[in-house]
């Protein structure tokens, strides 16, 4: 889909919506090959088999969750394994998104798999096939009238609150192959990305609720920091 198109409907990013950066523009690289001739260099390489690991999820109160994360370079050590581990960790905790600070790494990386949200009659179509890796992402634009939705977070178990966010966004990011994309998202898919993007900015969803509500939650939040919480996945508590 061309840049600037206003047709960001709910089915916008079902494959065709994700446009690789540079596609459909004046090609600086000259020759354009039919896609069937393009093979990723990685297709020739025998990849080591990684046994994915479940990592402990950092709980509310850990300073890593409050720090702005930093960009990574393409040669970041162990990146492929880290991404696999993050997906494994997220699935094990029944999450639909996980950001690197949540496993203790202050880097601009998050993974999302919101496909379960699309399932069933009441499923949200914006989440169909919505599995992605976001590396060094930049939200270029957010638009529309704010809407409220209940959010939760794997770092803040058993606590859900209504959060207001804008319904549409445009984001630029690298995927796990270091291909650069620009993508427009809306609906619940946009919300998942906004929540995870906040994590790499050092912001939690409870920072977006009213100060009064946050005050009322203080006791529960302190309990979480101390590990006084009933949770069925591995966590790391700061206190
Ligand atoms: Zn979260």
List the helices and strands and how they pair.
Blueprint (H helix, E strand, L loop, with lengths): L18 E2 L36 E2 L20 H14 L4 E3 L9 E5 L17 E13 L3 E7 L2 E10 L2 E7 L5 E7 H14 L10 H6 L1 H9 L8 E2 L3
The structure holds zinc ion.
The count of β-strands is 10
How many domains in all? 1
Strand order of the largest sheet: 1-9-8-5-4-3
Element order, helices and strands? Answer: EEHEEEEEEEHHHE
Task: Give a short account of the largest sheet.
Answer: 6 strands, antiparallel
Bound ligands, named by name, code or SMILES: zinc ion
Average pLDDT confidence is: 86
Which value, in Å, is the CA radius of gyration? Answer: 19 Å
Residue share in β-strands: 15-25%
CATH homologous superfamily assignment? Peptide deformylase
- Low-confidence runs of at least 5 consecutive residues: 1-16, 25-39
Question: What is the terminal-to-terminal distance?
Answer: 49 Å
Regarding CATH, which class? Alpha Beta
Total count of helical runs of at least 4 residues:
4
Shape: globular
CATH topology: Peptide Deformylase
